[in-house]
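Q: What does the assembly look like in three dimensions?
Context provided by user:
Components: two
Sequences:
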Amino acid sequence: MKKTCKTQLPALILVFALLILWQMGAMHMDAAYILPSPTQILQKLWELRVPLFTAHLPATMQVTAIGLGISIVFGLGLAILMDASPAVSRAVYPIVITSQTIPTTALAPLFVLWFGYSIWSKVLVTVLITFFPITITVYDGLRAVRIEMIELLQTYGASRTQIFLKLKLPSVLPYFFSALKMAVPMSIVGAAIGEWLGAQAGLGYFSRRMITQLDGAGVFAPIVLLSAVAILLVAILGFIEKKVIRWRGEQ
Amino acid sequence: MLEFRHVTFQYEVEDFNIIDDLSFHIAPGEFVSIIGASGCGKSTIFRLTNQLLPLKSGEILVGGKDIHSQKRYCGYMPQKDLLFPWRTVGENLRLPLEIRGGMSKAEMEERVDAALRQVGLADAKGKSPAELSGGMRQRAAFARTVLTDSELLLLDEPFSALDFLTRISMQEWLLGQWEADRKTILFITHDVEEAIFLSGRVLVVEETPIRRLTSIQVPAGYPRTRACLSQPDMIALREMLIDLLRKRGTA
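A: Here is the predicted structure of the complete assembly.
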């Protein structure tokens, strides 16, 4: 613990210095509708705690959870299918890679047109942003399984299912966690973008509404909350990962 | 125990048969080493025997029957121990038993415990492979190979990655294991001294493509100690084998 504190210290000092700089700059500018100071944002966060925590945070989290859930289920499924069948892999892999160059956020208004203000337009943005990174990372993990280990199991007479369950599944776990740690913040971003473009609730929606009221601190407050939630979720994932994969890096 | 009958094999990327009409025979309970320069095709003989590679023509028999009609007729131990890092030592040993199936958990535990005792790793059962030394890892990998319950063991340079002193003690240890249960062992090595210390007979790969293996009887009985290596006929044999391999190297 002490060691962690020591290694994190330089970063903490830097963050603290930047916050002070921001505070002084904002106080000097004295234009809270453009650049609110950190203390003003915290104050706003406290004032708005009831609507933020009871209505908007749950709305965003719902979109994130549904979108991420869909991405995980279908992303894992597609990765496993691609690994099992070279034909599927050859057909899908180039499409998946190319699709990463499409600016998903630019398509988002179209989804609002299709699905209206229901949560599904937001869910679709989240899925589009997270689905392919999960698929590719897990697929690469499956391909990285050592061929000698597969062969060893083959000499024991293992079936394809046994090779998958006893070798591929455990060895792909680190890749899966990496994919999740990447996808969780992305899915929150996706949900917020979706809400920006059209929604009746959610932190993205709330932030946008505050812009129309020229309430700078009100714009920042939900963003700070979003970041805090993303950091917290990634930290929880990291903790679970450490518990589940004690052997990481031992290969 | 193991018989090659006019076996021919060609790698797809090559335009010649690396194994060409090869026949040889190994009797039950023999300890035979195959020596040859690296890349000469020694390992290909193993990969044909354990069916990781398909024959082009000819037959391989184990126990008088064609290998294609049999399962678990040979235990294969590659150069790298290939212990799965996410499994404890005991769980690694259980792998061949799990894959075979039809055994209760208690039975498997009993077999694993006995195998661990036999290789002197009873205390390491719950440890992660990363906690073991190189020699211990090889002993665990050997125990796992024995648990395939095959009468024929194919050991592919199992000690070549170990330091000199560990290698010597592992060789003595392996001889002890073999003298206890007299399984048929086919041992690949490029270390001439290792070959003559361990084996009753040495098969030399003199040429690639492999059309024949030169069989040379080792003039020493069992049990053996390293002292036998300093007998004049053993020294003569060692020099003769080195000459044979060198001749091939310069050809």
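Follow-up: Chain A has one domain: 55-244.
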